[in-house]
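Input sequence (124 aa), recorded before submission:
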Amino acid sequence: MEKSDVIEQVQLPSLIESSSDAVIEIDTFQHKFDSFKTEVKNTVSLSLTFCLLWFLSTYTYNYGLDYASITSSVILSNTSSMWVYVISLSCLVPLSFRERFKPIKALMILISLTGFCLIGIQDY
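Predicted structure, token format:
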């Protein structure tokens, strides 16, 4: 007998002693593994969706640079916070995820838009 066979014979009985516990542990592990696989699939699916959206937005921004000045492109891209807020208030978003109107947010967006207007006026 080799040394490795002796080690296997010593370790094997300790695993067999509580076979019902081992079955429960295997079932628990299988359940955790299945839920982990589901979480990974959901994460990958969501990541690919946002990756596609990010790629399209970056592509259209760079494509737009051919047809507009740099200032106009920067102003349009920096108004994204305003559009996100307006869409989050609108009926396009399900009611449970809809943002509540807050005057301070509206004021901050107006201040931001004022800055964009000043940049636009200076450019022309």
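Checked by second reader. Confidence is low (pLDDT under 50) at residues 5-13.
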